[in-house]
Amino acid sequence: MKKLSFLTLLIAFGGVLTAQTSWLGQSSNQNYISTGMPILMIAPDAVSSGMGDVGVATTPDAYSAHWNNAKFAFVEGTMGVSTTFTPWLRNLNVGDMNLLYLGGYYRINPRSTVAASITYFSLGDIDMTDVTGLKIMDLHPNEYAIDATYALKLTDNLSLGATGRFVRSDLTNGQTINDGSGNSETHAANSLAADIGLYYQRPVSKNEEIALGAFISNLGAKLRYSEDNNNQEFLPANFRIGGRYTNRIDDYNKVSVMVDVNKLLVPTPKFRTYSQDSIQSLSDYNNIGVIAGALQSFGDAPGGFSEELQELQLSVGAEYWYAETFAVRTGYFFEHKNKGGRQYVTAGFGLRYNIFAFDFSYLVPTAKLSTDPLAHTIRISLSMDLMPAEK
To answer: What's the structural domain count of the chain?
Structure first.
């Protein structure tokens, strides 16, 4: 059980008022991009999360819907399912906040694959209090996303993927809240979004393979939590590009190295500095369209090109397999301190036995923070190849 004010809840977990913090008390060298439903960007599996959150060109598996839907066209099995459990923000002594993921795929024919998944995020049971600490009510906020994917091989080496997604964010349970400017009737926010991906892989020698991927995800209508135009959020539309190199050293040993570059397709808010007489209003920011915002996100940072570079996130990872049975993984994720400051090393391992797979990952922050909420984050994934590929 957690005791939080409504404002604290929304600022911490991405709800109605998070965007407003971009206009309040922000220093000139910090200009965060805030979105609704940040769970859509959280790694759902212990495989990629053990390698610094790389995934756009990793080996295709049942988690490809999150990283690059086009990879499903190259998945080896005929049918498989997977699930992941992630205890969230345990370093803040929050005991009942969890992320659950369930996904599966089915190969229709040698060139086409369909897939579906559901992501569910529970913020636990929350005591909503007023500014004096007096309990007002119990809240059970939650968010979820349901998606369906189709992937097609365009050639023997290139594939295309498309995903449709329904998302729902219920942070207030329909309560009337005071957002600082008066009372507002709130409701759950629903939206539709789409993903599109490209994936290319080919052998470059008998024992070597390269892969490249590009993926645009979560491009969809804004989340609206009330009829107030200021109580809406961009979805975390995102562009990811990267590559993989795999070397099968011999019949028992295989090594892969991967790199991803990631960027939010969300407009950068104009921040307040002591030298500015005016700032962009919240209303003006909310009036930016989704497509217009995605396009201008490549060149709208107030600090110019140097700030645009700060908005890029970098992931690097490596994986070692022994006899396709035991894997060891490690990686690093970097986000500039002015854009959120998440920086961490990850490690993990995987076990395969017959049709079953178990994967585990662990996160160690490297940023210099007195208390990092992501510290000690673990993920546990279970997968099953219901119809594995014939050897």
So the answer is: 1
